[in-house]
Amino acid sequence: MFRSSDDNFALINDESQATSSVIADGLAMAMTGMDLDTKILINFPEQMLIDNAGFALPRENCVVEILENVTPNKKTLRATQKLKDAGYTIAVDDYFGQSQLKPFIELADIVKVDILELATDFEKIEKTIQGLPQGVKLLAEKVEDQGTFEALAEMGFDLFQGFFFSRPEIIPGKKLTSNELTKLQLLGELSNVDFEPVRLSEILQSDPHLSFRLLRYINSVGFGLQQSVTSLKRAIDMLGMVQAKQWLRSTILADLNPSPKAGELAYLSVHRAKFLESVCTITRLEGCDSDILFIAGLFSLLDTMLGLSMEDILNMLPLDDRIVNGLQGHGEISQLLQLATSYERGKWDETADQLSRLGVDSFEAELIYVRARSWTQEILGFSKPC
Question: Where is each EAL domain found (predicted)?
Fold first, then answer.
């Protein structure tokens, strides 16, 4: 989606200009390190649809998303049909039963249903989707909790968008498995200021799977090496201790819980960690410690991933007091975590206030956010090596 460098990021005076900016500049940034199977949905206002701007996009990756205020007339429907005939995927945005959108619905591959507009009333939602063409993919927008997600999945929704991923689902009396506990203890050890470099080699040598993944990562296309690296010591030396620890922390966190929801949360946690670490390098805050912020961001969703309270998790980990206070909602780290959260949820007024307080330019923050995402994709192995 379009973001301006001024005025809270999303001030749109001209919808066509905004979409043109996304196509011209944003798409290249978005696709850096992205899996080739990933789809990108791009908003299309009426004039851009009529002007056949969709043909500037790669049809394998991009979905033309028709905004809810586009009028279905001869020009727009003809333009949509041309895109569909050419093999493009068509999505209709913010549907909650509007009859005027039906002509677009007939051509759509994906229909995005606005759950909050239907007051999360499951009877209304079911009635709304009953008349949709068979075979269309249903995408639920603004899903807020696990219960709603499960009910909609039962109803036949394929895709989901919203904040339910980051809300904890605490199971009373839950205990960690021995595997989860071992990984959690390892994360704590890696986050200790007294961590010995030799220990990094010991951890990798004791786990062939981790060793293989490190060597695959160091030999991936992003490093541009002339010769393959086959030695763990050489791999660690090339990365440097700081990045090697970051890679290992991120990889262990991603392996902590194999469920699809936890996979999304691991991605979000690593992205958040790198974003906060990068913010630390450009902020005017005194005594900002980039490694402390990386760890705080990385651990900020552990309660949701493991189904335990943050207090119970912190009791298991020997962490710096600044991290503990931040994860409990206190101090400067807590405010920086709120910055990451407001960014993720599109709360642009709140984001702008936070950036202003930190003395960080909004455009610079946007670049940092995109670069942090590319780094996350690479470090978790989402990009495809040659």
Answer: 1-182
